[in-house]
Structures are given as structure tokens and as C-alpha cells.
Design brief:
This protein is of the alpha/beta class. The chain is 39% helix and 11% strand.
Length: 413
């Protein structure tokens, strides 16, 4: 096995991981700048959106990374940093039970379909799996498309609660059974080894190597970075102290982003994996470079009202224009006739702008919603306001509708 020349840090965290508790003092741009050091030498690097339990504002990250890469377009040696979509999910066997194990698992999207399915799984973990934290379960995990999602066993929190290793001598039977289900489902399921020179991590790594040879499950090296440089751990400690939080179980953990040489050195110092196994695990991180590029669609998607779905866009534009003609005829009696030409000019300008932006469907949706509200539910359109209520705006009281100016003390609103 060839000694690795570089690796991909797919398992890392920023301040976006702090939904439940502070976890990292870094922002995603810090990782951009670190990856830049190798990317400018033509060494491929990734940025993964992996955070605890949630998905950060990845459209913003995607755009910022795209712009960051563009800043180097004059450098012919520069290798653009690759965007990787993923999450470190919380999971239990059954999300409908009161199981607060909250085990960890890393999910990475190999393509855009994987991204969509992981997003849906995160949504479902909030909708139907929330118990202290949003939890996926085996039903959700095994519903993910086997060829579109890349899975790793994350940190020791994947094994802990279901192996009883936090309480004493591990009993691997239950977690191994689950692990085999996941391995048999996903095309890419990896057991993640880490460099923490602690008794529990050594026990986990030793067991991982046993499973690796017994069942042929591949291994992969994770950094679980919460900072980039070791000296930044002081900033993380200050962050935790400010929230009166401590994680004593992290004593002895490596939480930075090491160089490839230091990464290898730490594994060898841990003395569980052989040199060959270390090289294999680190080299396997570079498989992630083969993922399909995810191209996010920034176009605005406006739903088409059901009654117009059979019509092409050009015909829907004509419907939009006809509605405006009809409404103009119906409402022009309330307008000063001396201003008709001004109104007609602006209406035409508005029509041209809306159709030019392909936004007629937005107005058709609003029109149908308001029409249905009036015709089926007796709704009343209130006068327009500029981001706040006008004095003539209508509000519901216990017995009728009133303008805000007519609401009296004691009215039930």
C-alpha cells in the first residue's frame, strides 16, 4: 500500500454544529483557507458540510466556496476545492421509542440525489424522531439510496451506547448486527478509525480491524476536527467555559486537522493499526474525490396552480394578462380618471417585467388563493400596507371585522 501524500478531511465541525451545545469556535471560511494551502499546489481538497445533527446554510457555503475558487482562476496550479454535502446524524434503532442513545453516523452525498435524500432524512428526524435531539433510525437510514450515499461509522459515539462500552466491558453483539445491516445495504459503508490515544478509542479501533478482516468492511480515517491547529483548542475551551459546559470524556482526543505526516504518526503511536492499515484508511478518504460534482440549482421555483398546469408558460402569461385587463375594468371606477394613462402605462411596464422574469405563476398563485378565500370562505381583502398595518386594515374581533382604528379597549381580537 502506497504511503498517502494527502487526505480528505470529510469529518469536521464549525460553529454551525452548536445547535444543541457549543462545539467549535471556527467558521467554514477557516477551513477554506486551510485547504487553500494545498489546493494552490495542485493537491485536491474538499470542504464537507458535515455538522452534528443538522445541515448548515449550505447554499451560502456553496456560493462562498465557488467565489473562493474563482479568486484563484489565474493560478494554473490551483485545484478548486470540491464541495461535499453531508451530515453527522444522530441515530437510534427506533425513533418512535424514548431512546436517547443518540449514536453518531456520517452521511455524505455521492451525487445530487444523495443530497436530496439526506436532506429528507434530516427533515424526518426532526418531524418524527425528535427526543431531546433529532434522531434518525434504521428505518430512515436503510431507506437512503444505497448507491447515492457514502456512510462511515463516525466517532466512538457510533458504538458507545449499544456496545455498553461506556459502562464497562463492551458487548459488541447488538451494534455489530446493526453494522452488518448497514454494510449490506450501502455500496459504500466504511468503519471509521481515529487517532485518539485513549483506552476507549483503542478498543474501538481494535474491534473495527477485527470486523474489517472478518466481513471485508473497508476502513477510513476520520479526524473529527473541531479546530484546525492545536493552539485553537484554547479558543474552544473558552467557548465551552462561557456556556458552563465541559466534556471530560474528550480528554486525550485529537481534535485538530493534522498534516498527512502527523496523521500517520499519530496512528502509529496509538499502536493499534499496522502501517499498512493506516495507509489504507487514509488513502480511502480520497475516494470522496470521485463523488459527482453537486451543482445547486439557484433558480426560483414557483408552483403552478393546478388549474393551469396543462398550459405552457406562454399561455399562462396570457391568462395573467387577461386577469389584469378584467381587474382593471372592474376597479378603474375607483380611480381618478385623470390618472388613467399613468396607471395604464405602469400596469404595462409591470406586465413586461413580470413576464420577462418568468414570474407570472407567482401572481397567478396569489390570485387563485385570494379568489378562493373570498368565494369559498367569505374572506375580505384588506387594504395594502408597507410592511405594517394601516389604520384601515381589518382585524377579526369576536363578533365581526373592524378597522384597526375602530378597535376599542375590551375588544377580543
Amino acid at each position: 500500500m502506497k504511503r498517502p501524500e494527502y487526505y480528505q478531511n470529510y469529518h469536521k465541525h464549525t460553529s454551525f454544529s452548536s445547535r444543541y451545545a457549543p462545539d467549535s469556535p471556527l467558521v467554514y471560511q477557516d477551513y477554506f483557507k486551510e485547504a487553500e494551502k494545498l489546493a494552490t499546489q495542485g493537491i485536491p481538497q474538499i470542504y464537507s458540510t458535515v455538522e452534528h445533527g443538522v445541515q448548515p446554510p449550505y447554499f451560502r457555503i456553496y456560493d462562498d466556496l465557488e467565489n473562493f475558487n474563482k479568486e484563484h482562476k489565474t493560478n494554473s496550479d490551483y485545484e478548486p476545492i470540491k464541495f461535499i454535502f453531508g451530515t453527522e446524524a444522530y441515530w437510534v434503532e427506533d425513533r418512535f421509542s424514548n431512546d436517547s442513545s443518540n449514536n453518531h453516523i456520517v452521511l455524505l452525498a455521492k451525487n445530487d440525489n444523495g443530497r436530496k435524500k439526506i436532506n429528507r432524512a434530516i427533515y424526518e428526524s426532526f418531524k418524527t424522531g425528535y427526543y431531546y435531539k433529532n434522531r434518525m433510525d434504521l428505518d430512515i437510514l436503510l431507506s437512503l439510496p444505497k448507491d447515492d450515499v457514502f456512510v462511515t461509522s463516525a466517532c466512538i459515539a457510533y458504538w458507545g451506547k449499544y456496545s455498553n462500552m461506556y459502562e464497562g466491558e463492551p458487548d459488541w453483539a447488538k451494534i455489530d448486527e446493526i453494522t452488518l445491516k448497514l454494510f449490506n445495504h450501502f455500496t459504500d459503508f466504511y468503519l471509521e478509525v481515529q487517532t485518539n490515544n485513549t483506552d476507549k478509542q483503542k478498543v474501538v479501533n481494535k474491534h473495527i480491524i477485527e470486523l474489517h478482516y472478518k466481513y471485508g468492511i473497508p476502513i477510513i480515517a476520520g479526524t473529527d476536527s473541531h479546530v484546525i491547529r492545536e493552539e485553537q483548542l484554547v479558543d474552544r475551551d473558552d467557548l465551552l467555559k462561557s456556556k458552563k459546559i465541559s466534556y471530560p470524556e474528550e480528554e486525550g482526543w485529537n481534535m485538530d486537522e493534522p498534516s498527512v505526516d502527523l496523521f500517520i504518526e499519530r496512528f502509529l503511536e496509538q499502536n493499534i493499526l499496522t502501517e499498512e492499515e493506516v495507509y489504507e484508511a487514509i488513502n480511502n478518504t480520497n475516494v470522496i474525490l470521485d463523488f459527482e460534482d453537486i451543482i445547486l440549482d439557484r433558480s426560483l421555483k414557483v408552483p403552478v396552480p393546478k388549474k393551469y398546469k396543462h398550459l405552457p408558460l406562454a399561455d399562462r402569461n396570457e391568462v395573467f394578462k387577461q386577469i389584469l385587463r378584467d381587474e382593471w375594468k372592474a376597479q378603474k371606477g375607483d380611480i381618478n380618471e385623470a390618472k388613467f394613462d399613468e396607471y395604464i402605462k405602469e400596469i404595462r411596464n409591470g406586465i413586461e417585467e413580470v413576464i420577462g422574469c418568468n414570474m407570472a405563476d407567482y401572481f397567478l398563485c396569489n390570485y387563485e388563493i385570494m379568489t378562493r378565500g373570498q368565494e369559498e370562505y367569505g374572506g375580505i381583502l384588506t387594504p395594502s400596507g408597507r410592511g405594517c398595518f394601516t389604520e384601515d386594515a381589518l382585524v377579526h374581533t369576536k363578533n365581526d371585522l373592524k378597522s384597526i382604528k375602530d378597535v376599542k379597549i375590551g375588544d377580543y381580537v
